[in-house]
DNA sequence: CGATTGGTTGACCGAGATCAATGGACGTGG
DNA sequence: CCACGTCCATTGATCTCGGTCAACCAATCG
């Protein structure tokens, strides 16, 4: 029995297998999608554009149509943390606080679908399935956040990188065996609580050990077993 | 303008001031409480008792009536992380996954009120105010989790300890100026991604600097300013 | 009163941070 | 097309914060 969709993600033995539980944060399925589609407008944004700033009032919620978005928190001394990367079909900005406590930025050129929060709330009021989906989506993000706390608090740099690569592989289409990495090394570091040099060293070590092959903007997994054992994940 | 209730907590200049935004995770106010009260049964548990185990099926949700509860994740090699401490009036086990991905344990002798999940769902279906409260509670926990990721990924041991003490002070009644610390040093370490020795050293350093005074099972804040500047929090 | 549990402190070590140099990919303008 | 500048990845050398191992003490509880 899988413990949660997080665990499930990392347990997947090979590229191509469909996850038993859909990844949390993905957009709603079936009829709910249609109702939502009509409410949103698609916007294109350039690489590194700020979708909203930390401290902005929260008016809108979003779904990623294409590309990769990052959620960023910064301290005034410049220390930065990326709480989440979001890919096609995943949503962000559904938290209820009136003011954003993270910035949202485009990692690469992206298209996002924007929704007015009032429209989202109205839809939740009129459609119990959508309300249920929203609650489960938030709940899933909370579980993922708890898993990430464990990673940030207790895992080594090498474990973090291996876990990250497996997560990226799990979320990507991966038609040709090359898993894309849209974000620069610095972003990977800020996501994992590491410096970019450390992220870099861990990646090249994995390559030297023939577990992965680094490509232009991505990587290929050569030895899935080596990677999973490196990640040291709990598989209940 | 405060950015979130998390930020608000740490910005509070002295013990006794009422927060502008109620702490997230607290039990619902007013009429909603009454409806919920009837559904729950109060249970007493001994110190270190397991309320539920990691991997158990999730049947119940809880509110803390008295004492302190911890949410614990463990790796099979023994590394442990505490995702959350919960105090009187705060709730846990409202996440939707069918299987718990954290254990819940009593830090000290506690009383908790248990609710059947089906009852919680029924109440949410029949009372929109309760449904709204539940969504905001989950959302608040998600924001706190994001703040904690920043702490675990980017703050120093000394910053983490100062932040932790301010959080504890903010959440406690603190009638007599002594902030209780129900949990042992090891738990503080596991909450902050530190070893217990490191937590201990950071605490005694703060005491030597006359910022706090350590007591039997708690501490007194002697120099609030020293503590907040040590915590290095963002105050928007 | 000994046994157990939790807190404190010291000595030393190592994973990851920091500082620095190099090189490749890419874009732009002449 | 080439020269130059910018951004990013990589690698090396060194340093440091926090981890590790260990001793000791105080409080609590049979």
Element pattern of chain A in H and E: HHEEEEEEEEHHHEHHEEH
* Radius of gyration computed on alpha carbons of chain A: 18 Å
Residues in helices of chain A, as a percent range = 40-55%
Beta-strand share of residues of chain A: 15-25%
Shape of chain A: globular
Helix segment tally of chain A: 8
N/C terminus separation of chain A: 7 Å
| DSSP, total strands of chain A | 11
Instruction: Tell me the greatest interface.
Output: A-B, 54 and 54 residues
Task: Write the SSE topology.
2 copies of one chain form a homodimer.
Chain A: H1 5-11, H2 31-37, E1 41-45, E2 50-52, E3 60-66, E4 69-74, E5 80-86, E6 91-92, E7 103-106, E8 110-116, H3 117-126, H4 128-154, H5 157-171, E9 178-180, H6 185-192, H7 196-208, E10 212-215, E11 218-221, H8 224-231
Antiparallel strand pairs in A: 1-8, 2-7, 3-6, 3-8, 4-5, 4-7, 9-11, 10-11
Helix pairs in contact in A: 3-4, 5-7, 5-8, 6-7
Chain A binds a DNA duplex (30 and 30 nucleotides) through helix 7.
